[in-house]
Design brief:
alpha/beta; Aspartate Aminotransferase, domain 1; Aspartate Aminotransferase, domain 2; 4-stranded antiparallel β-sheet; globular; binds pyridoxal-5'-phosphate; aminotransferase; AspAT/PAT-like; transferase
Length: 438
């Protein structure tokens, strides 16, 4: 038995205790629990890269506004079901300032995090046309969104974008859309877990096909403008966050407070529905929602039923953060650019010790350094690599759980501390020695 930084018996005991038959299918929470247990048993610190939680303090602008709102008594009042007017205004300005898209304040709808935004979107999109009963995922993706559909009893299809970048994307998408059962397409950009960023030409294809087949695009911008290869931080000035909104009118942009503003705990985001989609009345709505527009079905039927709006004070926080960003007083991307710096250093260590980046390119360009990156090791499946790295005090999740067909792991940079680069270097040196590449 090779000597590893964490005694194998501790890791094996932690895994056995969780009763996990196939480690490659372990959820983020299970991996976190195994790492915590092995850390406690061994007394050796883990380099934790499994959770996608912001590792930074919350935006001070948001906290201040929220405290003031609470002191002004908003906690006793139900928030407007359409959303706080100031937030709707600022969200409309934000999409203009940072994406160069015109969406009326009416269509900018506060939600309790993007999670609620996708849940509500799935519910409404699934009712537009009874023949269109399936959501298409451009994977890899965020597993909980598929869980949302399972909870609703709705269908989905998925493909791994790995082999379908650039011009290969159109025929692949058409092979699904031409079946006539797809109501909406969803993807995140930048992507969780691969940090792939779809290029303009790919977004154009998605947009054109959405119009041609009359389907809705759910563009998940949870990692808004965090492609640090380009400075997207200056309001009302190019370059902007790339978007499908420039190529179709059938879209919802899901903007989250969680990562860009480190505001995950307050569960706040804004779902921005295009002007034409907001006003459209789909015949399929009559049965469940009545004769209402898409926007009204989203807000007055679904959101009203789900949570009757969004925490009042969190809406004040989000309004203040967006306002400060719109006015150029608060460069929110500067706060989170640390994730990119961490990814660059971590990737360099892994690459030097025989690892490779699994999702390595956006067409001809290396992927950006950001919140996540993907790693593989020759001759190991994602599940094997995940278990092996546990013995070296490194925890990350297998790509298996994300709709990816590739062998490897997703590593998240958010919890990395400064002293851990040396730790990782030392441990990966040993890993390489113990696992020679043949
Ligand atoms: C791609 C993606 N979408 C949505 C979310 C959830 O966002 P929120 O916290 O706004 O619900 C996450 C969080 O990890 C994510 O990675």
């Amino acid at each position: 038995m090779k000597k590893t930084p964490i005694d194998c018996k501790f890791v094996d005991e932690a895994i056995n205790e969780m009763h996990i038959a196939d480690l490659s299918k372990a959820t983020i929470r299970e991996v976190k629990a195994i790492a915590a247990k092995a850390e406690a048993l061994s007394g050796i610190e883990y380099i934790k890269m499994e959770m996608g939680v912001p590792g930074l303090p919350p935006s001070a602008v948001g906290v201040k506004a929220e405290i003031e709102a609470l002191q002004n008594g908003v906690a006793s009042l139900y928030p407007d079901i359409n959303g706080l007017p100031e937030l709707k205004q600022e969200a409309s300005k934000f999409v203009k300032a940072f994406i160069d898209v015109d969406i009326n304040p009416e269509g900018c709808v506060p939600v309790t995090g993007s999670m609620q935004g996708t849940y509500a979107s799935f519910m409404v999109c699934s009712q537009c046309d009874e023949k269109k009963n399936t959501i298409l995922f451009i994977d890899p993706g965020f597993p909980v969104q598929k869980q949302q559909l399972s909870v609703m009893g709705e269908k989905y299809e998925t493909f791994d974008v790995y082999n379908y970048r650039g011009e290969k994307l159109r025929p692949k998408l058409e092979s699904y859309l031409s079946q006539g059962n797809i109501s909406a397409i969803i993807y995140s950009n930048p992507n969780n877990p691969s940090w792939v960023c779809l290029k303009e030409e790919e977004l154009k294809v998605i947009g054109e096909l959405a119009t041609q087949y009359d389907i809705i695009v759910l563009e998940d911008l949870a990692y808004f403008a965090m492609d640090f290869r380009t400075d997207l931080s200056v309001p009302y000035q190019a370059p902007y966050q790339p978007t499908v909104a420039h190529y179709t009118d059938n879209y919802i942009l899901l903007i989250s407070g969680s990562k860009a503003f480190s505001y995950a705990g307050q569960r706040i985001g804004v779902s921005c529905i295009s002007n034409s989609l907001y006003n459209r009345v789909y015949p399929g709505f009559a049965k469940r929602f009545g004769n209402v527009s898409f926007g009204s079905a989203f807000i007055h039927r679904v959101l009203y039923a789900l949570s009757s709006g969004v925490s009042h004070s969190a809406q004040y926080a989000m309004a203040a953060m967006l306002k400060a960003a719109n006015e150029g007083k608060y460069n929110f991307l500067k706060d989170v650019s640390i994730y990119g710096e961490r990814a660059r250093k971590l990737k360099e260590i892994f690459l030097r010790h025989g690892f490779h980046i699994v999702y390595d390119k956006d067409l001809d360009e290396p992927v950006a350094d950001g919140f996540y990156f993907t790693i593989g090791y020759p001759g190991m499946t994602g599940g094997q690599l995940m278990k092996e790295l546990m013995y070296y005090g490194v925890s990350a999740i297998s790509l298996d759980t994300t709709g990816s067909n590739q062998e490897g792991l997703r590593a998240c940079t958010s919890f990395i501390k400064d002293h851990q680069y040396d730790q990782l270097e030392e441990r990966m040196q040993l890993f390489e020695t113990n696992n020679p590449i043949i």
